[in-house]
Design the sequence.
């Protein structure tokens, strides 16, 4: 898990606890009273709580399911701004945390998937070893077989997130 994802997870969890408790308390008190009297007083607050829950859920979804980190960073910063506009001063901690996680996502380098190169001589079918430091892979093969001039390079892209696991 990347750092911006961890920070988004912490921010969203903290941002979901209070509105969810408020909605549960509202429903519980309304069920005790029997008449939705509280809707006259707290209806706007309930709508804001639902909006806060939606903003935090969207931030979680974007941080973990969108692969383009530039788009994730921009959306996280926008989630912080929308949160500030929705809850005014109470949204300031969320704004700061979403801006920090958005900047971390914008600065994140894209991961390059590891590749394995297989080089074959088309004349004799021999698989050649490719050294990571020497780009002249066919030099030794050409010295032994001067007529073998055609090669096929197969590139296998491995589905892993860890770029250190290149073999």
Sequence:
């Amino acid at each position: 898990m990347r750092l911006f994802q961890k920070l988004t997870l912490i921010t969203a969890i903290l941002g979901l606890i209070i509105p969810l408790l408020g909605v549960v308390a509202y429903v519980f008190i309304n069920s005790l009273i029997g008449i939705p009297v509280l809707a006259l007083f707290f209806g706007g607050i309930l709508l804001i709580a639902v909006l806060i829950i939606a903003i935090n859920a969207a931030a979680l979804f974007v941080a973990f399911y969108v692969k383009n980190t530039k788009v994730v960073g921009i959306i996280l910063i926008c989630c912080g701004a929308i949160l500030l506009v929705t809850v005014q001063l109470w949204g300031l901690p969320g704004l700061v945390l979403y801006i920090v996680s958005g900047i971390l996502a914008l600065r994140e380098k894209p991961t390059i998937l590891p590749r394995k190169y297989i080089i074959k001589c088309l004349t004799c079918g021999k698989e050649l070893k490719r050294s990571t430091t020497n780009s002249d892979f066919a030099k030794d093969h050409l010295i032994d077989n001067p007529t073998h001039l055609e090669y096929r390079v197969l590139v296998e892209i491995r589905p892993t997130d860890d770029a250190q696991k290149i073999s």
